[in-house]
Amino acid sequence: MTRISETDLYAPVKAFLLGQGYEVKGEVGAADVVAVRDGDDPLIVELKLGFSLTLLQQAVARQRVSDTVYVAVPRWKGKAGWRAFKGNVGLCKRLGIGVLSVRLADGQVQAHCDPVPFQPRKSRRHKTALLKEFAGRRGDPNKGGMARDIIVTAYRQDAVKCAEYLACEGPSKGAVVARETGVTRATRMMADNHYGWFMRVEKGIYALSDHGRSEIADAAL
Asked: How confident is the model at residue 50, as a pLDDT?
């Protein structure tokens, strides 16, 4: 298999820019590619075989010279490659850097974003969810940086309270569990049975499953 290099990206990128009316030259000053068109800021492209911190640092450094800075990388492969690429495009948007991908098989170049000032839009829904989880969490049961699959959420804490109540009192009405534990969503949680801890023994009445009994016996809870 032929090993590719950054220079393999140059011809397709140059052809792409020539098609837009630019005069293009390679390795001008510290820039990999410089393109000039009457009346425009010089357009700078940094070529790399993949996204890296070094590439982004280089692109940001080129913004001292021009507001029109792109990075160009080979086109992604597969779904995982696309997800990673999409994430990097989002990062470049925040930095005001344009992104080009090059399909080496036929030299096709695609622009995924242009270098324009980024104006972040905050998500009210995500902010509300974040603050709701923060307020609902009892104490600080997790160490920052730990694995996501073992994090104790407010939802899990509520489920534990319901399970502990059933372990002591036996099968109970959802409304009673909610009142005695202070978990207002107790009935819905036991009905949804996200962790497999509960079982409905009759309409509106829930008990611990064998799995739930085993789980709450675990000191880790």
From this structure: 93
Distance CA 90, CA 56 (A): 12
What tokens appear for 208 in the block? Answer: 């611990």
Sequence letter at residue 27: E
Domain of 31 in residue numbering reads as 6-113
CATH of the domain at 147: 1.10.10.10
Task: Report d(CA 90, CA 112) in Å as an integer.
Answer: 10
Judge whether 1 and 101 are in contact, CB under 8 Å.
no
CA pair distance 41, 98, nearest whole angstrom: 14
In the structure encoding, which two tokens stand for residue 185, read together? 């969503």
Cα 183 to Cα 155: distance, rounded to the nearest angstrom? 10
- Only one residue has tokens 């492209």, namely 45
In this predicted model, what pLDDT tens digit does every residue of 144-158 receive, in sequence order? 777 777 788 999 999
Name every residue whose Cβ is closer than 8 Å to that of residue 143 and which is 6 or more positions away in sequence: none
pLDDT score for 36: 94
Indicate the pTM of the whole model. 0.62
Tokens found for residue 198: 């509960």
**25 and 67: one domain?**
yes
CA atoms within 13 A on the CB side of 199: 9
Q: Dihedral, CA atoms, 134, 140, 142, 148, nearest 10 degrees? A: -10
- Rounded CA gap, 30 and 10, in Å? 15
Cβ(177)–Cβ(207) under 8 Å?
no
Sheet holding 23-28, edge to edge: 23-28, 31-36, 43-47, 68-74, 98-103, 108-113
